[in-house]
Design brief:
The complex is a heterodimer of chains A (634) and B (205). Chain A is mostly helical. Chain A is built from 17 helices and 4 strands. The mean pLDDT of chain A is 94. The chains are: A mainly alpha (634), B mainly alpha (205).
Chain lengths: 634, 205
Amino acid sequence: MSPAESHVPTAEEQEQHLRTLENSWRHPGGITGWLSFTTHQAIGMRYIVTAFVFLVVGGILALMMRFQLAQPNNTFLGPDRYNQFFTTHGTTMMFLFAVPMMEGMGIYLVPLMVGTRNVAFPRLNAFGYWMYLAGAIFLYVGVFQNAAPDVGWFAYTPLSGPEFSPGKRPDFWAQMITFTEVSAMCVAAELIATIFKMRAPGMSLNRIPLFCWSMLVQSFMVIFAMPSVMIASSFVLSDRTVATNFVNPAEGGDPLLFQHVFWFFGHPEVYIIFIPALGMVSSIVVANSRRHIFGYTAMVLSLIATGFIGFGLWVHHMFATGLPQIAAGYFTAASMMIAITSGVQIFCWIATLWSGRLRLNTALHFVFGFIAIFVLGGLSGVLLGSVPLDLQVHDTFFVVAHFHYVLIGGALFPLFGGFYHWYPKMTGRLMNEAVGKLNFWVLFIGFNLTFFPMHILGLKGMPRRIYTYSPEMGWGPANLLATVGACIIALGGIIFIANVVWSRRAGKVAGNNPWDAPSLEWAAASPPKNYNFEYLPVVTSRYALWTPPDERVIVTGLRSNRREVLATTLMDAQPDHRYVLPPPSIWPLLTAIAVTIGFAGSVFNEWYITWGSILSGIALIGWFWPRRPLELKP
Amino acid sequence: MTAARTLDVSELPPFRISIQAPLWWGQVCLIAIEATMFSILIAAYFYTRLRVDVWPPPGDQFPNVLLPSLALIPLILSAFGSYWASEAAKKDDRRGMILGLGLNLVLAIIFFVMRIIEWHSLNFNWMADAFGSYVWAFLGLHSFDFIAGLVETIVFVVFVASGRYGERERLGIHVDSLVWYFVVAIWIPLYIVTYWGPRLVETAQ
């Protein structure tokens, strides 16, 4: 199909179109209505806000640990409480903050960026959110019952097995995994379908914005990595609750198997968090250097390569378990290889920035911070990839320093940049730039003060996961410095929250495209309407909004009296058929409740799996009950 | 957005029961998730097996192969019922849908009865040892999928037989056939591992 010259809607037709569109995408009212929302902006925002709450909670736990370690022989937290806190901190940050936050950003931004009205499966999207929320509440019910997991965020067997961890603590950890992974898988499936089949006409594969590419790669990684952690946590859970022997050495099981299965997920997990952040960096860099990205193809290929190589690294978390040398050699090489694909991207950004006309706003500050911190973290990662050094610093604070440099530098800094970049899109107002730059510097200084000393502590032999140390070890000053740094990070967090709250009411009105950025989300209103675009856009170049307005094309002929979008072909995004999305529904919530009864109950009594399955089956039949009219009018 | 030109899509169909439907892709993703899960479980089985000398452990029988092998016949044939229904769904052929789903259902139930009989004859359970845990996990997880697939099929038969269906349900039947192909196909490696695995990997490292 080629664009026709005729049929440009008249002003009157447009007004009529807008009215019906507004009506068919209106949110249902009341509490039940609110629980039935299925628009991607609402669900995405719920993910973002919930995940941010858990960032704060996880941060408070970290701060308490830092207070405990501030000086030798401190008694602020006892050993048991300390174990619970570091486990809950890691678990919260990984499963309740980082992954859901990236997914929330993806859910919010991907449909806007590919130029459609919602994700491919809006109800599944709502269900995924409820599962995430249920899992988060489930873990914290445990925390407040003094049953927080205390075996590390990776819950190695045999420590987490029935023999060494009686009670329910690891069960809360293991079942929380199931909840959040179900949620992550729902998001992955719907984002893949959205990016593959619902792109604006003309947005062929080589025109997809890099953020969408990164969410696509991340979604595939979720599909192939997350089942692994569900297997791992189910091994632990079923060994504990129904006396299976998967990881029980007394009956032929093998505890080390747990580590393999866990890290086959655990390493890709790092990239599941990190790859969307790379996409955010690309968006920020393009918008603020005001030029095309340098090396688009190289960037896409290295994203995909990172996705593949990420699955070949897991054993480098297990160098200290006595592996055959050949395995250690292979995984060392693979670990070094990932530096190449990350390096390609770093150099492409530098080239883009170098030749661009920079707008040095807060978002770009965070990108610079990201490059600095991430490169440092990457370098200590290359060091750790070598077996002799890894054995030397294994289980010390050097490793803690390394992965906080990679995760905070690689994911949190781009994410804060992303907040500053997309806040005007999500709220209609700009965040305060002066406060933003202060925010950046406080976080940057606080971060380095906290985590740089940990490198030195690690080299001096301070182990991870100890609740205190004696004064003659000489670790006191560096620990005190790290604690001061942690307080500065907390101050940075407070500045950020204050800026968000203040700007929401009093920030400068942003308009549709305050950064003059090229991707389609900036063509929608700020904040976007429920239907995103009055008329779906047609894309004629990689940088849709940098196309001169008189060359732009819109889609007409979609019905506005129901939630209709356009399905396009996978490679070239040729229009294929019109696709009708379902109206809001309470069934995703009811299904999530049914599944929660099964999951949460099974920790205490295995029969709950049966009851939960039956309830879920009933809820799913309700979900899929045929709607009238049965046949769609053309 | 103002624009000088438009792309009119009003002539396109409001629905397509084919690989072009987003639902088809979503279903493929969910199948990929489950296939990964079973693959990791199989890898874990062999990892565990290669670390012990005697497999199955003393006292556990070798699972019988005769009945499970015969049971493959109705199982594989049931996929043709599913295919028949999915093709009928494309053409809105109500009779074809009912017959296809019905055939699928009958054959699937025959398979499942054979499975239960064989399962019942095992002299160990999941608590016995790691071997028992894996065999019961393979059978249990696959049966869970299997029953979910059966319930879906029954629900679709009820919808179609009562006339309460439209394009969305027909797309559902088409896409649901993918689930059934998966349930059938994944059983073949699981069957080999469960019933032939203990015989195939004789020696330990």
